[in-house]
TrEMBL record:
<protein>
    <submittedName>
        <fullName>DUF4192 domain-containing protein</fullName>
    </submittedName>
</protein>
<feature type="compositionally biased region" description="Basic and acidic residues">
    <location>
        <begin position="196"/>
        <end position="217"/>
    </location>
</feature>
<dbReference type="InterPro" id="IPR025447">
    <property type="entry name" value="DUF4192"/>
</dbReference>
<feature type="region of interest" description="Disordered">
    <location>
        <begin position="297"/>
        <end position="319"/>
    </location>
</feature>
<dbReference type="Pfam" id="PF13830">
    <property type="entry name" value="DUF4192"/>
</dbReference>
<feature type="region of interest" description="Disordered">
    <location>
        <begin position="196"/>
        <end position="227"/>
    </location>
</feature>
């Protein structure tokens, strides 16, 4: 058995320049799992599917406690595997509990996979403990000693070295892998001041534009704020986003993400801007290949008047154009017939901007950025990171609409269009390896 995994640092689809890592055996797949996830799995079940063309097509993880319920998660993972042309599925338990206590949970997943795959694929069950690893069904002590083979074989072998050379790191836990650490106090102070100024300018812009109601709870216009039409304010705010993404993309080509520092004042200004729905929608659309026109129209329509286009008679036509352009762009995310994955460079740059915004800006501005990060994670096929960011967004603002929509998408296990078109499930992290 050989499978090729193409490395992509942020968890999204691989780019043509990603170096492949060749996996020749089930043990190689076991060694690759922490690198595929980005962290060391604990107390969970991981399913790895290898496709007919030798790709790692699906990596799914669910907690052992969830598997102890009515089997729903086992069936969900099996349905995801069924969308992949699977020739080998590994079911791996990561636990420090005795094998006898968790064996039934592996059996539930194996049984669900067997029902879906209908014996067209080999299914192997493994267990990895702090003391070692072994096949659950292996009775050959020369292959799998009762206490298991040493875990160091997996962690310090050729596969791990290949991933390290490719730039892949492993966090100690999922929480550590996905935690956004606060920026330095001086950075947070500058971003907070810029966000307050931008919010006052937004209030002034809406006050200065006819027929545009002020948002509930919007602060009064501050002293020294020069009002501009709301469309102008939105276009300028969207321009800040475009400039930051462009800067992030340029710096990521030269430096690791941890060494890139974006301007705190511009991050603060963007944080306040994302509270404006048309600006947030334009930001989302700008991430979609071919969506830049829809993004420009989304903020450009505001120059004619309010968010609903009520300030002039031509706005109705403009609003219709925006809706058509937006529908065309969104179809490239959700429609399997035309769905495309995100551009890796754009997605990496956008993720960096949004994560640095969350690190720098006050918590009251986090919800839109976290919801956009959830959208990016879902689009890239990283279901559990998307769910985490949705929960974080909802904690900041339980009424945030984009986070609510994404929560429904995740609950229904709706995959992005490119995943459906490729026959890959959305309930799990999706990799896009290529045969080298």
């Amino acid at each position: 058995m050989e499978a090729t995994y193409a490395h992509h640092p942020a968890g999204g689809p691989g780019s043509p320049f990603d170096p492949p890592v060749l996996l020749r055996s089930s043990r190689d797949l076991l060694a690759a799992v922490p690198y595929l996830l980005g962290f060391r799995p604990r107390d969970c079940c991981v399913v790895v599917c290898v496709t007919d063309d030798g790709r790692v097509g699906l990596v799914a993880r669910t907690s052992l406690d969830e598997l102890a319920g009515d089997g729903l998660d086992a069936r969900t993972v099996a349905r995801a595997a069924g969308r992949v042309a699977t020739r080998l599925a590994l079911v791996v338990l990561y636990t420090d509990r005795p094998r006898e206590r968790v064996r039934s949970r592996a059996d539930a997943v194996v049984g669900a996979l067997d029902d879906v795959l209908h014996a067209v694929a080999d299914i192997e069950a493994w267990i990895v403990t702090p003391d070692g690893y072994r096949g659950l069904d292996c009775d050959d002590p020369s292959c799998c000693p009762p206490a298991g083979r040493p875990g160091a074989e997996l962690e310090h072998g050729e596969v791990g070295a290949a991933f390290v050379v490719a730039g892949r790191a492993i966090a100690d836990s999922e929480q550590e892998a996905h935690r956004i650490r606060p920026a330095a106090a001086a950075v947070r102070d500058r971003a907070a001041k810029a966000a307050s100024r931008a919010d006052r300018a937004r209030a002034a812009a809406r006050d200065a534009t006819p027929d545009v109601p002020r948002d509930h709870g919007m602060p009064a216009t501050g002293p020294g704020t020069v009002p501009v039409p709301v469309g102008t304010w939105r276009a300028e705010a969207y321009g800040v986003w475009c400039d930051l993404v462009r800067q992030a993309a340029e710096e990521l080509r030269a430096f690791p993400a941890g060494e890139v520092m974006l301007p705190p004042a511009r991050l603060g200004r963007l944080a306040a801007a994302l509270a404006d729905v048309p600006v947030r929608d334009a930001v989302l659309l700008s991430l979609v290949p071919g969506g830049r026109e829809a993004a420009d129209r989304t903020v450009g329509a505001g120059a004619r008047g309010g968010a609903d286009g009520s300030a002039d008679r031509g706005a109705g036509s403009a609003s219709g154009e925006v809706e058509v352009a937006t529908a065309r762009a969104i179809s490239r995310v959700v429609d399997p017939r035309v769905g495309v994955p995100p551009d890796p460079a754009t997605a990496d740059a956008a993720r960096l901007v949004l994560e640095q915004l969350v690190a720098a800006a006050p918590r009251r501005w986090h919800a839109p950025a976290l919801a956009l990060l959830a959208f990016l994670a879902w689009w890239r096929g990283d279901g559990w990171l998307a769910a985490r960011r949705v929960r974080e967004s909802a904690r900041r603002d339980p009424s945030h609409r984009l986070a609510g929509l994404l929560a429904g998408v995740l609950e229904a296990a709706v995959p992005p269009g490119w995943v459906s078109a490729a026959g890959t499930g959305a309930e799990a992290r999706v990799t896009e390896p290529r045969v080298g």
